[in-house]
Write a structure and sequence with these properties.
By secondary structure, the chain is of the alpha/beta class. The chain has one domain (17-127): 2,3-Dihydroxybiphenyl 1,2-Dioxygenase, domain 1. It is 15% helix and 36% strand. The chain contains two helices and eight strands, in the order E-H-E-E-E-E-H-E-E-E. Strand 7 (111-116) and strand 8 (122-127) form a beta hairpin. The longest helix has 10 residues, at 78-87.
Length: 130
């Protein structure tokens, strides 16, 4: 079976759509460890850090403690991003929002840590060995 048009286009990508209760707070949180605002309008926000893009929609009614939103972020420099998040003041903890879960070798064979943001979204920070 042949590949269709654009099957190997390096510009194709998937980007998570995540909730934000308040765009100003989301920008402040993520900018503390290197994300910049690429787009913002009344209902949509796009933040970028290198090749990582996170898109947010407004969800002011969201309860962060019952949020089930999550995304995987695969990184060539996992330790660098983790250190930047930690240096921004996000605590390493087992409970609370926001928090970091330390990087460790996970049962599936890769190193990974977790960031739970202000809105309860869990970002799986996964080392991408290439």
């Amino acid at each position: 079976m042949g590949a269709g048009p654009g099957a190997d286009n390096p510009n194709d990508r998937a980007v998570p759509n995540l909730p934000s209760r308040d765009f100003d707070r989301t920008i402040s949180f993520y900018s503390a460890f290197g994300f910049v605002t690429a787009h913002r309008d009344g209902g949509w926000l796009i933040l970028r850090r290198g090749g990582i893009a996170l898109e947010f929609f407004l969800a002011p009614e969201l309860d962060p403690y019952s949020s089930w939103f999550m995304a995987s972020v695969r990184l060539s420099d996992l330790d660098g991003l983790y250190a930047a998040v930690r240096a921004s003041g996000v605590p390493e903890a087992t409970v609370g929002i926001p928090r970091l879960v330390p990087v460790a070798l996970r049962e599936w064979g890769q190193r990974a840590g977790y960031l739970i943001d202000l809105d309860g979204t869990q970002l799986h920070l996964i080392e991408d060995a290439g």
